[in-house]
Amino acid sequence: MSGPELGLAISVFLACAVEAVEALTIVLAVGVTRSWSSALSGVAAAAVTLAVIVAALGPALTALPIGVLRLVVGGLLLIFGLQWLRKAVLRWAGLKALHDETEAFAAETASARAAGRRSDGFDGYSFTIAFKGVLLEGLEVAFIVLTFGANQHRVGLAAAAAGVAIALVTFVGAAARAPLARVPENAMKYAVGVMLTSFGTFWGAEGAGASWPGGDAALLALIPAVALASAGMVAWLRRLPARTAVGAT
Fold this sequence. Notes:
Radius of gyration: 20 Å
Helix content: over 70%
């Protein structure tokens, strides 16, 4: 497995694991509180929808000329990567609250209980919330799988990494029957943000006609550079006066 392929697998695995943890919290909340069968039906429907999206967009991406493909993929990865990196930087700088799965589970559970009486048969609330949660959390991962996989012509590898992450989170969540509050989500989001931003910059520049010194080996310098730049941003934001920092949110 080459360096870019390893980076692909790690990035997709971490991104999918984070989104799977958040989706698991939503499904657990409505399943425990209202209806497991309806919640799982929502999960299945969302999975089918995501599969259709991947099946429809995958061939379209791979049909693009390599230069255009790299430019498109690089742009998309930069959009996703900078979003993840921004949130992680703000959280570590103390400008954004850390995501707490226990609090999220409590909020979802309270909403489920306040949604009205649970029906004995099909529960529309459980289905809708589970479907929406899994679909929204899964869409970003689906695009990451498609863009990474299409550019490297390794959609199968990206899908396998995503599948392993989902299976692992599902197994642990089913065994615990509780939200996975101890998963270091912010650290994982930071790592994913660094990887996506680095690969997005690399492939976007190549798609625009630039040539990197050393070819793929340039990633060995680009990834640490992005990590150091974001760490410097965290340190700078932490030194800002409290009044300025609150306004930056």
